[in-house]
From TrEMBL:
It comes from the Eukaryota. InterPro entries: RNA_methyltr_RlmE (IPR050082), RNA_MeTrfase_FtsJ_dom (IPR002877), rRNA-MeTfrase_E (IPR015507), SAM-dependent_MTases_sf (IPR029063). Belongs to the class I-like SAM-binding methyltransferase superfamily. RNA methyltransferase RlmE family. Keywords: Methyltransferase, rRNA processing, S-adenosyl-L-methionine, Transferase. It holds the Pfam family FtsJ. SUPFAM superfamilies: S-adenosyl-L-methionine-dependent methyltransferases. One of its GO terms (cellular component) is mitochondrion. GO terms for molecular function: rRNA (uridine-2'-O-)-methyltransferase activity. This is rRNA methyltransferase 2, mitochondrial. The keyword Chaperone does not apply.
Length: 284
């Protein structure tokens, strides 16, 4: 198991656009930056799938998101370092479900679903997974009489049962979303990058408006989903790209959670527009 510590400090950023007289391609610049980055090196040493782990570790250090036995859903899990942290922090008996649009090798102890989270049928599939009694969760399908038959006419459901059913659907303690749109691959095919999704995450299109708009769609979908599945007292973390609409998103978080924080962990690259919302203690 990996050891967790936070005394790491990035040693400054790299303006590596030009080496000697040779201008590097953006993909080469990304590789050089990865190579020189202290969090990247530390992730490799600790057996973590990517440096992104340190963002979640720093958020957890501050807000104590996890406990043993919890259910965690990790949206946009690939390559899997947040899920690795979640598995570690929810021991014993926790369960972690990762969802990603691209194929990736699941980290040990993580169940995964491959699909587009924005598709309603994928969300229905995820919810089905979460309430499946074979996965150790209770299922309450209706009100039964002594003989095991339903007291209600087909199609009818009492108000109390409706509330119970809603509660029963809420089986998740923490929803994480580090989703950002995977850009189409234009180079590096020789690296077999389909099975190495981190190579496809040179992240962001370079167009701030596009990155912001795409991230708002993903965050809003993650928040709506959380409103369906999170238990009272549950927590939510989502990455977003800053822009005009993030205030609206923050307000929606305030409607659902007792406390809301906006932060940029130290391990998030300073030149990037990414930031994080943390929603703590879902309201009843
Ligand atoms: C920055 S990476 C996540 C890194 C991950 N948290 C980790 O620690 O390894 C973002 C992921 O979001 C996924 N993603 C983006 N849009 C998605 C969608 N609509 N449905 C599912 N996954 C999505 C991408 O495929 C990518 O793997």
């Amino acid at each position: 198991m990996f050891a967790l510590f936070f005394s790491l400090r990035p040693r400054g950023t790299f303006a590596l656009g030009v080496v000697g007289q040779i201008r590097l391609s953006s993909s080469k610049r990304w590789q050089a930056r990865q190579h020189n980055d202290q969090f990247t090196r530390e992730a490799a040493v600790q057996g973590l799938k990517s440096r992104a782990a340190f963002k979640l570790l720093q958020i957890d250090e501050k807000y104590r998101l996890f406990k043993g036995g919890q259910t965690v859903v990790d949206l946009g899990y690939a390559p899997g370092s947040w899920s690795q942290v979640a598995v570690n922090r929810t021991q014993p008996n926790g369960r972690v479900l990762g969802v990603d649009i691209i194929p990736a090798q699941p980290p040990k102890g993580v169940s995964t679903i491959q699909g587009n989270f924005l598709a309603p049928e994928i969300q229905a599939y995820i919810q089905d997974f979460l309430r499946n009694p074979n996965r150790g969760r209770p299922r309450q399908l209706g009100v039964l009489n002594d003989a095991g038959g339903s007291l209600l006419e087909p199609g009818m459901i009492s108000e109390a049962a409706q509330t119970d059913r809603e509660k029963c659907e809420r089986t998740v303690d923490v929803v994480l979303s580090d989703m950002c749109e995977p850009w189409h691959q234009t180079s590096g095919f020789w690296k077999r990058s389909l099975s190495d999704p981190y190579r496809r995450m040179m992240n962001t299109s370079g167009n701030n408006f596009r990155d912001h708009a795409g991230s708002m769609d993903l965050c809003n979908a993650a928040l709506r989903f959380s409103s369906d599945v999170l238990k009272v007292g549950g927590h939510f973390v989502c990455k977003f790209y800053q822009g005009a609409e993030d205030k609206d998103l923050e307000q929606q978080l305030r409607n659902l959670f007792q406390k809301v924080h906006r932060l940029k962990p130290e391990s998030s690259r300073s030149e990037s527009k990414e930031s994080f919302f943390v929603g703590l203690d879902r309201r009843p």
